[in-house]
Amino acid sequence: MRNSVWLRTAALAAVPFLLQAQPKAAAFTVPRGLPPIFWPKDNPYSPAKAELGRLLYFEKRISADGVLSCASCHHPSKGFTDQSAVSTGVKGQKGGVSAPTVINRAYGMMQFWDGRAASLEAQAIGPMANPIEMGNTHPVVVETLRKIPGYRTRFKAVFGTDDFNLDHVAMAIATFERTVLSGNAPYDKYKLGNKAAMNASQIRGMDVFFNKAKCDQCHEGASFTLNAFHNLGIGQDKADPHPGRFAISRKAEDLGAFKTPTLREIEHTFPYMHDGSLKTLEAVVDFYDKGGIPNKNLDERIKKLNLTAQDKTDLVAFMKALNGTGWQQLTEPKEFPQ
Ligand code: HEC
Ligand code: HEC
Predict the structure, then answer these.
(1) Can you say whether the dihedral through the CA atoms of 283, 284, 290, 292 is positive or negative?
(2) What separation in angstroms does the CA of 68 have from each of 77, 146, 268?
(3) Contact 272 CB / ligand 2 (< 6 Å)
């Protein structure tokens, strides 16, 4: 970083000017390598709203048994997942799919493996009333929170009313989720000009990723996903497979197609795939090398790759260069509103 002192001086000198020119800019800063967050017009960012969202995200009193919170299945210490093949909801019930990470979901327009929720606001209310997740009802969630004076004060401060409803709860949680980000990884630093940020194996793995294996046909962009749906054959060789995107679109070609996940923090979000069937990144690479699992809807981009042992090692090393920062400071609140 030869020019860093220079750049810093120049940046400092530019600050007063920028502040004058754009009085509303930079209320929230994203880690390096990520685009700005798109804050919905009807749910703009404020620090107080994100903090209320953080409290609700970790709030166990919104589940039927008072034991589960969003964090139970999307925990910060586990890369905002539960590191399990399938999640465990109220009364120990097992779900059918693996919990995806909340990290960088701000950049996804559709939520869930099959894309059935159109926004984070729409997504957030789902788990509370899902009988095998938090097992509650929406009226009870709102009633429970309204009985807690500490929450009334906070909702009043953020939304101007203590007569809040489920939409307000969803807006606060979604705002918090949009701050759960990962960027500034060795890969970002490398791209920004610090050639020492990645080691030789990671640099070779980057070449395998983009050129030899063309993983970026689907894992493209700052979050390494185009958020589109593809059939890799995962689970399609099992009895009664999950229909994937077909459940929503009802298009035959979407049978067994799932939303492409981000590869940011991928080292922390094992096991992999919608059914958690691949335990390690090595297993994922072997899976792609063999050309996926044959089935009538297999995506045409999934083909045998003929990777060497070195290619495979390097590809895994490259994926670990996507571990970054921006989410580690978002931890469980020490105290909750009473
Ligand atoms: C019992 C475990 C469990 C709990 C509790 C839970 N989730 Fe999830 N979450 C999941 C699973 C499993 C999925 C994937 C479901 C699917 O795609 O069909 C998911 C999906 C998501 C997604 C979509 C991610 C993506 O890549 O599309 C988001 C965002 C999310 N949950 C946030 C939350 C929030 C916010 C809460 C609390 C209100 C919550 N979850 C509570 C297990 C859970
Ligand atoms: C045709 C599009 C496509 C291509 C090409 C592709 N992927 Fe994927 N990737 C997906 C989809 C879709 C999933 C989820 C599939 C599922 O769960 O059924 C996925 C899942 C993954 C996962 C697991 C993510 C998680 O959170 O569970 C990893 C790791 C991964 N891909 C890495 C790669 C690598 C490395 C390559 C190149 C060798 C690659 N992908 C090529 C679409 C693609």
Answers:
(1) positive
(2) 16, 19, 21
(3) yes
Please, how many CA atoms are within 13 Å of residue 301, restricted to the half-sphere of its CB? 13
* Nearest ligand by distance to the CA of 71: 1
Phi, psi dihedrals of residue 119, rounded to the nearest 5°: -155, 165
Distance, CA of 19 to CA of 29 (rounded, Å) = 15
Nearest alpha-carbon partner for 318 in 197, 218, 225, 183: 197
Residue whose token pair is 């953020």: 158
77 exposure class (CB count in 10 Å sphere: 0-12, 13-18, 19+):
exposed
Measured in residues, the chain has a length of: 338
Maximum distance among all alpha carbons in the chain?
Answer: 64
Q: Could you tell me the two tokens for 33?
A: 């390598």
Question: Whose alpha carbon is nearest atom 43 of ligand 2?
Answer: 218
Unique residue bearing structure tokens 């996507």: 322
Residue of 74, 102, 182, 215 with the most ligand 2 atoms within 8 Å of its CB, for mutation: 215
Kindly report the number of other CB atoms within 10 A of residue 197's CB atom: 18
Q: Quick check: CB of 242 below 6 Å from ligand 2?
A: no
Pocket of ligand 1 (CB under 6 A): 68, 70, 72-74, 87, 89, 95, 97, 99-100, 102, 105, 111-113, 120, 123-124, 127-128, 133-134, 173, 177
* Tens-digit pLDDT profile for residues 168-207: 999 999 999 999 999 999 999 999 999 999 999 999 999 9
pLDDT band, very low/low/confident/very high, at 20 (cuts 50, 70, 90): very low
One-letter amino acid for residue 87 of the chain: S
Residue pair 8/15 in contact by the 8 Å Cβ criterion: no
In the block, tokens 């999640």 appear at 87
Structure tokens at 306: 């003929």
For residues 6-25, give the mean pLDDT: 38
Question: Which residues, in sequence order, are CB contacts of 161 under 8 Å at separation 6+?
Answer: 155, 168
Ligand 2 pocket residue status of 260, Cβ below 6 Å: yes
Locate 211 and state its tokens.
Answer: 């050129």
Question: Side-chain half-sphere of 153: how many Cα atoms within 13 Å?
Answer: 6
